[in-house]
């Protein structure tokens, strides 16, 4: 397993060691499990956004992205696709728009 | 018959179409296009204002597109009361960070649309899912960016909506997600029937 170096203040290190010993665990386990939990949450939110069950505004707020571009990049670089409505629904909307705009 | 108007209800359709070099497709609906000043601000100025930087090429490209078609009377940028308040806040406080001003301005534009001369049916172009719930009325019709691409596919202005969407996702796979170069609209097959289109493709 690769090593990770983290810089913390002496006070935080002392508190973290105390917390680990009180909870019968190690600092490494604490960092590992917290990182796993954080990334799991992010992945779940992105997956929910990709399937349309979370809005872009909510996903941005939950993941603390500054703008929409960051959110869409996270989706696509994670191998997911940006959500769109079903082809059937899109066809209905498109037909409606074509009729309204008198394109045919 | 009262003419239909297209209302841009959030910034995402503009961003998506710009990313794939397809902003011009908006004009293919042959409809007057209305958008609130704050939605335009969100796409073209917000990041520059909040990060104290100059507008980048993509933001300027979108702004130039809008301004050009505003000048020729196709696009109407509407300054609602929400826009005026937001502008005042920005001028008084450079640290002002807008949250949802675009959305509120779009609501204001919609609710006061008759004042802005939008008397016919409204075609709302949007991405935010709430729009369909909030603005559900008899004379309102909905169009997502993907559905707009499907419409363009149906009138044979683009080959495939799905291919365009794939191109969009590809752009966003890259870290700098730079917009594709502008692709002029090919109208040579526009209005073809399915049969004519197949023959041409052969």
Topology at a glance:
The complex is a heterodimer of chains A (104) and B (202).
Chain A: H1 10-22, H2 27-50, H3 56-63, H4 68-77, H5 87-100
Helix pairs in contact in A: 2-3
Chain B: E1 5-8, H1 12-19, E2 33-36, H2 37-44, H3 46-50, H4 57-71, E3 75-78, H5 81-92, H6 101-111, E4 122-126, H7 130-134, E5 140-144, H8 145-154, H9 161-173, H10 194-201
Parallel strand pairs in B: 1-2, 1-4, 2-3, 4-5
Q: How does this model look, in words?
A:
The complex is a heterodimer of chains A (104) and B (202). Chain A is mainly alpha-helical. Chain A has one domain (10-100). Chain A has helices at 10-22, 27-50, 56-63, 68-77, 87-100. The longest helix of chain A is centred in the middle third of the chain and has 24 residues, at 27-50. The mean pLDDT of chain A is 87. By secondary structure, chain B is of the alpha/beta class. Chain B has one domain. Chain B is built from ten helices and five strands, in the order βαβαααβααβαβααα. The longest helix of chain B has 15 residues, at 57-71. The radius of gyration of chain B is 18 Å and the shape is globular. Classes of the chains: A mainly alpha (104), B alpha/beta (202). Chains A and B meet through α4 and α5 of A and β5, α8 and α9 of B.
Q: Calculate the mean pLDDT score of chain B and round it.
A: 90
Point out poorly predicted stretches of chain A. none
Number of H- or I-type helical stretches of chain A: 5
Query: What is the number of domains of chain A?
Result: 1
Radius of gyration of chain B: 18 Å
Number of domains of chain B: 1
Work out the strand percent of chain B. Answer: 5-15%
What is the end-to-end distance of chain A? 63 Å
Quaternary form:
heterodimer
Shape of chain A: rod-shaped
Helix-strand category of chain B: alpha/beta
Q: Tell me the number of helical segments of chain B per DSSP (H or I, 4 or more residues long).
A: 10
General form of chain B: globular
The largest sheet of chain A, given as strand count, sense and whether it forms a barrel, is: none
Largest interface: A-B, 31 and 43 residues
Class based on secondary structure composition and strand pairing of chain A: mainly alpha
Biggest sheet of chain B, in brief? 5 strands, parallel
């Amino acid at each position: 397993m690769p090593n990770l170096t983290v810089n913390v203040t002496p006070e935080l290190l002392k508190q973290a060691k105390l917390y680990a010993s009180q909870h019968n665990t190690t600092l490494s386990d604490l960092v590992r499990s917290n990182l796993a939990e954080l990334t799991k949450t992010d992945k779940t939110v992105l997956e929910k956004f990709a399937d349309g069950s979370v809005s872009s505004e909510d996903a941005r707020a939950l993941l603390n992205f500054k703008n929409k571009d960051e959110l869409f990049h996270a989706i696509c670089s994670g191998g997911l696709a940006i959500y769109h409505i079903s082809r059937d629904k899109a066809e209905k909307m498109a037909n409606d728009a074509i009729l309204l705009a008198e394109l045919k | 018959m009262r003419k239909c108007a297209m209302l841009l209800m959030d910034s995402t359709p503009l961003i998506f179409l710009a990313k794939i070099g397809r902003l011009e497709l908006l004009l293919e609906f042959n409809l007057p296009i209305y958008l609130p000043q704050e939605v335009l601000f969100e796409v073209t100025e917000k990041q520059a204002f909040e990060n104290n930087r100059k507008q980048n090429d993509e933001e300027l490209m979108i702004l130039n597109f809008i301004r050009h078609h505003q000048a020729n009377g196709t696009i109407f940028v509407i300054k609602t009361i929400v826009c005026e308040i937001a502008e005042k806040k920005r001028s008084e406080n450079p640290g002002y960070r807008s949250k949802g001003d675009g959305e509120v301005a779009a609501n204001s534009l919609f609710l006061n649309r008759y004042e802005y001369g939008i008397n016919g049916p409204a075609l709302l172009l949007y991405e935010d899912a709430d729009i369909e719930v909030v603005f559900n009325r008899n004379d309102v019709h909905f169009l997502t960016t993907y559905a707009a691409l499907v419409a363009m596919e149906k009138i044979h202005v683009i080959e495939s909506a799905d291919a365009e969407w794939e191109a969009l996702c590809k752009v966003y796979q890259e870290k700098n997600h730079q917009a594709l170069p502008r692709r002029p609209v090919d109208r040579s097959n526009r209005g073809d029937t399915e049969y004519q289109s197949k023959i041409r493709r052969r």
